[in-house]
Amino acid sequence: MNHSTKLSHESNALPGRMNTVRTTRSISSHRNRKTLWCYAFITPQLIMFLVFTLYPIVMSYVYSFFRWNGYGPLEGFIGFDNFVETIYDPVFWNAFKNNFIFMVSLVAVQVPLALVLAIILNAHWLKGSAAYRAIYFLPVVTTTAVVGLVMRFIFGAYKGLVNEVLLKLGLIEKPVDWIGSIDTALLIVIIVGIWKSFGMNMIYWLAGLQSLPKEIYEAARVDGANTLQQFRYITVPLLMPVGSVILLLSAVNALHVFDLVKAMTEGGPAFATDMVDLYIYRYAFSSAGEARVGFASAAGIFYGIAVLVISLILGALVKMTGGKSTQGH
Prior knowledge:
membrane; transmembrane helix; transport; mainly alpha; cell membrane; MetI-like_sf
């Protein structure tokens, strides 16, 4: 009787076990199909990354050791000669200097002004702040090449908008070639660059401001702190980590300004607005004489290392600033 009872219980439990096994297999099969679909969607992006990003990066290191024009078989191994020529080329260092001046000027002017504007746009008393944000952010999403071409007409020597306005106001006696003059060309590029990317930093600052706890400001107002004191003792210390990241992003992005300069000045006049990206482009895709892809690759690697060093230095400063801010808080 006990043996038959045990068999009866096992026979009754068998369908339940079979259902559990079927359910487990169904879940496993569903997960496998889901995983396969994930790989299917990732594969095109992975192929694009390998073909158009990773492969060119790897091959640029290979090309840098050859005297190669980009056509035919890869031959003419010269070792580090391209790197040595880059180091001793004054035109390269002139472009590097212009890049550095552009970066420092953009960060020094744009970052604090964007903070001031973000504070104004974040104020509760401002009506239509969403519309103002869209207006200031519009240049960011505008094609840089189009902006450069439009600015060439605005700052044109003859019948340019700037010259027309200044002439009517009596501030100048004759048209000024803003872009064609060595003294003013880089300044105009910097001004346009600040205007073009101003809205991005404004959005970053706005995101940081809106993440600050309102209770702290309410407590400060109860204690009698005015607006300036709240900004100095609450807003600035709490925004230091965010501001450090904004500073880092602005500096790194400002080191690559190829499209704007190409459209506005093409590096002229007399290399006054030349940038390293444009310098590399001229040698890689030269329209006058034979292209030097190997030399352009070496210059690009050298500049990439310089940008990496600058980024690491700024990153260390960001970390130090964030740590001090956290300790102070």
